[in-house]
Amino acid sequence: MLFTDVIRRKRDGHTLTPGEIDYFVRGLTDGSIPAEQVSAMAMAIFLKSMTVEEAGLLTMAMSRSGTVLDWSDVGLDGPVVDKHSTGGVGDKVSFLLAPLAAACGCYVPMISGRGLGHTGGTLDKIGSIPGYDPLPGLDRFREVVRSVGCAIIGQTSELAPADRRFYAIRDVTGTVESVPLITASILSKKIAAGLTALVMDVKCGNGAFMPTLDRAMKLTRSIIGTAQSSGLTTHALITDMNETLGHTAGNALEIGESMAYLRGEDREPRLHDVVVGLTAQMLIAGELESDDDAARSRVIDALESGRAAETFGRMVAALGGPADFVERYEHYLPRAGVELAVTPRSAGYLQAVDCFQVGNTVVELGGGRQTLDDTLDLAVGLSHIAPIGSEVGPDRPLAIIHAASEPAAEHAEQLLSAACTVGKDKPANRPAVIDRQLP
Predict the structure, then answer these.
(1) Residue 177 has pLDDT above 90, yes or no
(2) Beta strand extents in 211-337 (DSSP E only)
(3) Per the residue annotation, which of 189, 267, 270, 314 is the catalytic one?
(4) Catalytic annotation on 94?
């Protein structure tokens, strides 16, 4: 079989056979299919899409391309549940949800990826913590999940290696937004992680890969349907991404905000709604609670009691980070050399934000990748980001830029100013959680 023939078949809109999909995944795994041909196939799928059956075959083939974890021999006394986000700007939910769910009785083996396009990556952000080992090996990973309740790590070479390579190539070839490829990428990792249940955070808005509710619903149905056919119980929330989630965007800055949240120092309301809503669904999907009110109450108790913060600290220490990170996070996180407040030309209400451009501003500062091999500056980004509906003016900035140099800060100021619309009328409030979808 020549892979160029397989590319042509998908380019021309044909349905790939199970044998062709298996051939593709084997070539991804062992490197026998070169990057340029993988890129061509990604673009062909992006343009011609896949049937549900094709996406399911791709999902299962990628999940079997490496080790599939089995938790039955570890002696866990609760469900193995995870959350996955389709990607957003300022999305630091994983760092809050994983210890919260663990403090409520779940076991959370969270295998995360690098940033995609304009969105930040959980793996990049956790790399801001000095000493933290994001690739600990499967034995250590399993032990940390067992003893702490959660572990946030990167996609190792053992788990779904075909997706690991495909994910990196999609990031730099303009093929991220494909519904079947997003579906297969997410679920292959989760099936390989041996989950009992999964909760999806499907982002919707101008800062998401699914900009409209219709497209977000299409992706949600694809994920839930494909997961169900694979025996994985999956719940989903569709959440708003027409503005940054929380007050920060950028790797170390988001870790700092996450610590302030867990410690009770600062909980931005929209971020809080998303975190509590998703964690509650994890308890329901994992059959620890049967209704939303009881699940939410349990989540709030784990947060307010400090158990979630304690769990995050134990996870960091178990994976090589500082034992006192939660208490002294400001001491450990890297800081950029230049800070610049961005103010509007005239006072008024922040009416709208091009969230996609906000994400690109962080990328331009060096906090995200423009090519596959880019090295990130973990300290750069945006803080004190004004939410839509807030009053802004000369003494109330749109955000504070954290940059490596004055020219970089000034360039980012231009980008951020252009992304924000300020006017006299206050816009209507928009819910952070738009919809809930169950199997």
Answers:
(1) no
(2) 233-240
(3) 189
(4) no
Under CATH, to which class is 81-330 assigned? alpha beta
The residues spanned by each domain of the chain are: 3-48, 81-330, 334-423
User: Is 170 considered catalytic here?
Assistant: yes
Average of pLDDT values for 334-350? 96
pLDDT for 158: 86
The domain covering 3-48 belongs, at the CATH homologous superfamily level, to Transferase, Pyrimidine Nucleoside Phosphorylase; Chain C (1.20.970.10)
- Under the banding of pLDDT at 50, 70 and 90, the label for residue 127 is very high
Q: Residue 231: what are its φ and ψ, rounded to 5°?
A: 80, 20
Please identify which of the residues 86, 185, 196, 361 carries the catalytic annotation. 185
In the residue annotation, 296 being an active-site residue is answered as: no
Asked if 343 and 398 count as a contact pair (C-beta separation under 8 A), the reply is: yes
* 84 annotated active-site: yes
Question: Does 235 participate in catalysis according to the annotation?
Answer: no
What's residue 119's pLDDT?
A: 74
Class (C level, CATH) for 334-423: alpha beta
190 is catalytic: yes
CA–CA separation, 239 and 328 (whole Å):
32
**171 carries an active-site annotation:** no
